[in-house]
Amino acid sequence: LQKAVRDARVEALSGFRNEVASGSYPANAEVAGIAQAELDDFRERLETERD
C-alpha cells in the first residue's frame, strides 16, 4: 500500500511539474480574476497599513 501511495504521489507531482514547465498550468480556469479597481484599492490599503 505504501508503495502504491508513493507511486501515485510521484505520478501526480510529475504531471504537475510537466504542466508548469510547459506553460499549460495555470490556465485561465485555475486563476482567480480581480477587477483592476479592486486590486488598486487592495494595494493602497496594504501600503496604508505599512505606514
Q: Helices and strands: which structural class?
A: mainly alpha
Helical region count? 2
| Count of individual domains | 1
What is the chain-wise order of helices and strands?
Answer: HH
Major sheet characteristics: none
Shape annotation: elongated
Computed over alpha carbons, the radius of gyration is 19 Å
From the N-terminal CA to the C-terminal CA, the straight-line distance is 54 Å
Which range does the strand content fall in?
under 5%
- Helix content percent band: over 70%
Mean pLDDT level: 95
Q: Which regions are unreliable across 5 or more consecutive residues at pLDDT < 50?
A: none
Number of strands: 0
Provide a quick synopsis of the model:
This protein is mainly alpha-helical and 51 residues long.
